[in-house]
Amino acid sequence: MAVTNYRALTLRKLLAGIALTITTCTQAAVLPEERTEFLFHQFDGGGVTISGPSVLVRKNVKETVSLWGNYYVDSVTSASVDVMTQGSPYTEERLQTSLGADFLYDRTTVSTSYTESSEDDYDAQTISFGISQDMFGDLTTVAMGFSRGNDIVMRNGDEDEEVQFEDEATHSRYNFAVTQILTKSWIVSLVGETVIDEGFLNNPYRSVRYTQPNGNIARQPENYPRTRNSDAFAIRSMYYIPYRAALKFEYRTYSDSWGIEASNYEIRYIHPYKDRWKFTGKYRGYSQTQANFYSDLFPYSNAQDFLASDKEMSAFSDSLIGVGVAYEVKSKYLRMLDKLTLNLYVDQMSFDYENFRNHRLSQGTDDTPAEYAAGEEPLYSFDATVIRFFVSIWY
C-alpha cells in the first residue's frame, strides 16, 4: 500500500494560498493584462519527484471584466523516507482546474474564483472572494479576501474492509492588506492572514513509532486535533534602483494553535539587461518549532491524546537560493502579439531537521542488519531542486 505524500499536497495548497493572497492583496484598480502562459514545473528531492504542465488563459471583456482559467497537473513519484519506512513507493497524478473573474468599477476591484482538484484519495474544492480599493490619489490600496475549501480525505487499500475510510476537512482563510506607495521608487505592503482548519487534518496512512515493553519498536496511527487556527503577518517591500533594477524584501511570521511558530525572510534582486533580458537572484530562509504533540519516538503506546511523527510537524529549517532569466522574443512574425517572453527559474533548497531522524537506517532486512537503533539514527536532511520553465504571451 502506498503512503500518499501529504507533504506535496500541503506544499501545493500553501502555494495556492500564497498566490491567492498576493493576487487579492496587491492588485490595484486596473484589470490584469490579457495573456496566456504555458508552464512546466518539477520538484526533485528527498526521494520525491513532482512534475507537470500548467496552462493559464486570461481574457478581458471590454474594460471592466477580466476572465481567467487555469489547468494544472501534478505527477508524483515518491520513495521518500516516510514512504519507504511505512509503505512502498508509488506514483499518482493530481488534476486541478480553476476559473476566476475580476470586475473593475472606478477604483474598486472585485475578484472571485473557483478551484477543483482531484486525485485517487483526495478531492478538494475552493471558492474565494476578494475586494481591493485604491484611495488617496491611488497611492494607497486596501484589500481583503476570503476563501473556503472543502476537502474529502480517503485512503487507498481499503477495498477488502467493510467500512471504507472517508472523512472531511474544511479550510477558511481570511486576509487583509494595505499597500502604500511611499515614493516614486519605494512601495511597501503589510499583510495579515488568519486560517481556520477543521475536520480530518492528518495523513490517514501515516503512523508514529513507539517503544514496546520488550524494547522492540512498533507503530500506531497518527492522531491530530480536529481544529487548527493559525495567524500570519508579513511585510513586503520593493525598491526601484535608478539603473532600472529592483530590490524586493519580505519578512513573514506564523503561529498556530498546535504550538508551531515559524518565520521566513526573502531577498530578491531583479536586473534588466538591454531591452530583452531580465535576470533574477534570490535567497530565502525559513525556520519553525515543533508541534506540541510531535515526537520522533514515543515511549509507549498511546503515550498522549494526540500523536504526530510527520517531519513537517517537527522543528526544522530550510534555505533556498534561486536564479532566473526572462527573455523577450521580438520578431516580425510576432507583430500580432503585444509581447512574448521565455522564462526559466531554478531554485536549490536545503532542508535540515532538528528532531526527526532517518528511520530507514534503523530498519534492517533479512540480509542486512540495521545500522542504528531506533531513536539513535542521524538527523534527517535532504536537498531539492525546483525548476520552472514557462512561456508568457500578451495580446
What does this structure look like?
The protein is mainly β and 395 residues long. Helices cover 7% and strands 60% of the residues. The chain has 2 helices and 18 strands. It has helices at residues 6-26, 81-86, and strands spanning 35-45, 48-61, 65-78, 90-105, 108-119, 122-135, 140-154, 166-183, 186-199, 207-211, 217-221, 227-240, 246-256, 261-273, 277-288, 316-328, 339-357, 379-394. The strands form 2 sheets. Strands 1-2-3-4-5-6-7-8-9-12-13-14-15-16-17-18 form a 16-stranded antiparallel β-barrel. The protein has a two-stranded antiparallel ribbon with strand order 10-11. A hairpin with a 4-residue loop joins strand 13 (246-256) and strand 14 (261-273). The protein starts with 5 loop residues before the first helix and ends with a strand. 24% of the residues are buried. Mean pLDDT is 90; it is low at 1-27.
